[in-house]
Design a protein that fits this description.
alpha/beta; Rossmann fold; two-stranded antiparallel ribbon; 6 helices; 7 strands; 40% helix; globular; binds flavin mononucleotide
């Protein structure tokens, strides 16, 4: 039995294209793997600790080998419980909209919480970074209002897929699979519907092999 963590990063619930594609993926996955467990985190609903001065102070104390005060421990225990929840999954599914060419700020906050030395990455003897979340697949459904095809001048604006996959790779992920719905706005409603239907079909197929 596998534990699947499904992270929804769009607040548009019923209207979200990325969530519609990821939901279809999860539905097909569950049909193919009825024994597996799905845990869903709605990143806009889920309370996340602010990564402000107290959290940064606790983080730097770990990096400098300084003991945590009671206040450090209080904030750091919240950070660790979120990391542990994340690391306890065997497989991951994500629904991710493009916001200002990158990822929504709540997902960035989640990344800032997750990416900690000694927990999700380390520095090996050769002085190189090494991800600690290993041998776990992730499926990501991306949605964008515009279109950013590879090999065109618009590709450089895509800091959504590039950034997220860089960070997942940094944490150790190697098996990263994705489907993109684009354009959800620039081509009008009919184009968006057509692209979303095609992405859902593709996601359903990919779920069976996940
Ligand atoms: C705050 C915000 C910023 C956005 N920035 C971009 C952008 O930079 N490029 C783009 O193509 N679309 C942008 N969009 C449009 C979304 O990417 C598009 O509506 C997409 O379908 C959102 O994903 P969702 O349908 O899963 O919520 C933005 C939307 C919002 C709400």
């Amino acid at each position: 039995m596998s534990n699947v963590l499904y992270i929804k990063a769009s607040p548009r619930t019923g209207r979200s294209h990325s969530v519609a594609v990821a939901d279809a993926f999860v539905e097909s996955y569950c049909q193919a793997h009825p024994e597996d467990k799905i845990k869903t985190i709605d990143i806009f609903e889920r309370p996340l600790p602010a990564f402000d001065l107290p959290a940064v102070t606790a983080k730097y104390k770990i990096m400098h080998g300084t003991e945590h005060s009671q206040e450090d421990q209080r904030i750091w225990s919240q950070v660790i419980s979120i990391i542990e929840e994340f690391k306890s999954a065997d497989k991951y599914v994500m629904a991710v909209p493009m916001w200002n060419f990158s990822i929504p700020y709540r997902l960035k906050q989640y990344v800032d919480i997750l990416v900690q030395p000694g927990y999700t990455f380390s520095v090996n003897e050769g002085g190189n970074y090494e991800g600690l979340v290993k041998d776990k697949p992730v499926f990501i459904a991306y949605a964008r209002g515009g279109e950013y095809p590879a090999g065109t001048g618009k590709e450089a604006f895509d800091l959504q897929k590039k950034y997220l996959e860089l960070m997942l790779g940094f944490m150790g992920f190697r098996d990263i699979r994705s489907v993109t719905v684009e354009p959800t706005l620039a081509g009008g409603a009919d184009v968006a519907k057509q692209k979303r239907t095609a992405a859902i079909e593709e996601a359903r197929k990919m779920a069976k092999e996940f």
